Protein: tRNA pseudouridine synthase B
Organism: Kitasatospora viridis
Amino acid sequence: MKRKGTGPDGLVIVDKPEGITSHGVVARLRRLAGTRKVGHAGTLDPMATGVLVIGIERATRLLGHLMLTDKTYEATIRLGQTTVTDDREGEVTASVPALGLERAAIDAGIAELTGEILQVPSKVSAIKIDGKRSYHRVREGEDFELPARPTTVHSFTVHGLREAVAEDGTAVLDLDVTVECSSGTYIRALARDLGAGLGVGGHLTALRRTRVGPYEVAGAHTLEQLEETFSVLPIGEAAAAAFPRWELGEEDARRLATGARLAAPGLGVAGPIAAFAPDGTFLALVEEKGEQARPVAVFVG
């Protein structure tokens, strides 16, 4: 049974704590929502915190489209050490003192990693290779390479730099950064590649996702808050926040509810458009294909 007043469909914007997997958050939400039909958009590692978008019931069908949105991260990059996982949870494989680095060199390295780039994901990512997760292959000791993938780093900004000494005595530099990027960008890989380019190695020591598309951490709920009051962003409001809105007339609303194609609204939008009936009911996500609007997911009927 669902808790009274939660509603059958919608998104929950969770502020994920450190130390729990994204799947663990989904399991908690299944219990709170009283349904097995729960999913998430965009995995966060156990070390990472911040915005995790959870779909309940029919809203799970929004998630694949939400994963195409841009994201913002706050992170700390440690220059001077390389780890097997490209983050602090992995074994240190190399240490090179980093205190001699000049700020100009760091800024130049960051500039090389900004814009449209080709990025080799971390081997401990969830990418599938022949149906098997990359991180599983790492745990089993396999030797393999991941191909580079195109991604876009809209901005990569340093807003803090601190000298520190690592546990093995290496003099390191910790950079506090903000990264705005397209979905599919690996912040661990940015840390790794920045350190490699500077000749000292690098890895991630902290990561917080503060935005996924229109959903920001300021509007997210902690798991403790959700245990007290389980609140769902209704599916219509979630769609209106994430996609351009298209108001339909009665006849077109009836036709779209059956999966029919309509004349395109002419919005010139490359991605999905949220179509609404005259009474405000969210009907479907559609895409403009030439002169037609083609439904990609219908949420009524």
